[in-house]
Amino acid sequence: GQSLEQPSEVTAVEGAIVQINCTYQTSGFYGLSWYQQHDGGAPTFLSYNGLDGLEETGRFSSFLSRSDSYGYLLLQELQMKDSASYFCALSGSARQLTFGSGTQLTVLP
Amino acid sequence: DGGITQSPKYLFRKEGQNVTLSCEQNLNHDAMYWYRQDPGQGLRLIYYSQIVNDFQKGDIAEGYSVSREKKESFPLTVTSAQKNPTAFYLCASSIDRTGQETQYFGPGTRLLVL
């Protein structure tokens, strides 16, 4: 099977940079995705790494190292609205996702 | 506007009752998915379908059933065999094409047992 581990909580101040790590165990996967979910809402797609390296999308960047079974999401210039849960997820052959348990990010003023 | 709709927003189930959650998309996506989310947890895959009239079990399919008679629709039935159905149920869809890795989620249905 597959499993992913993320920190349960991270706290940072507005304007800062925060990194959310994700380590995983799997026998095979297509890529690592990141999703954001606000309380009571639906997850929304943030970023995807199909290959090793860094992907940048505005204030968000994501990194994957297959050799280290490790990835991270980097959020820059934090805003209050970034307070949410962040999930890493492995993609299977049918693009079905296996999610980590999520990291609750709290942004303080 | 294109998107995914789920209904109802809240659903109450009595003991021994089957209930069906609706999921409709007008994005012309090939693949559709059902996930379950328990409080403070990640999403777990129940069933998925890559094409009409075909679907596959996910990690926690026991006590659930699905159908995919139309490309736009992927209803989920929570049967009486599912002993702990209280959860947040999320439907998603995606284009089944290499390089298109985004899944789009509906607003979800909260199922509660009376």
Explained architecture:
The complex is a heterodimer of chains A (109) and B (114). Helix content of chain A is 0%, strand content 58%. Chain A has 109 residues and is mostly beta strands. In chain A, strands 2, 4, 5, 9, 10 and 11 form a 6-stranded mixed β-sheet that branches. A 5-stranded antiparallel β-sheet of chain A has the order 1-3-8-7-6, with no helix packed on it. Chain A starts with a strand and ends with a strand. The mean pLDDT of chain B is 93. With 114 residues, chain B is an all-beta fold. In chain B, strands 2, 4, 5, 6, 9, 10 and 11 form a 7-stranded mixed β-sheet that branches. A 4-stranded antiparallel β-sheet of chain B has the order 1-3-8-7, with no helix packed on it. Chain B is built from no helices and 11 strands. The chains are: A mainly beta (109), B mainly beta (114). At the A-B interface, strand 5, strand 9 and strand 10 of A face strand 4, strand 5 and strand 10 of B.
Short description:
The complex is a heterodimer of chains A (109) and B (114). By secondary structure, chain A is mainly beta.
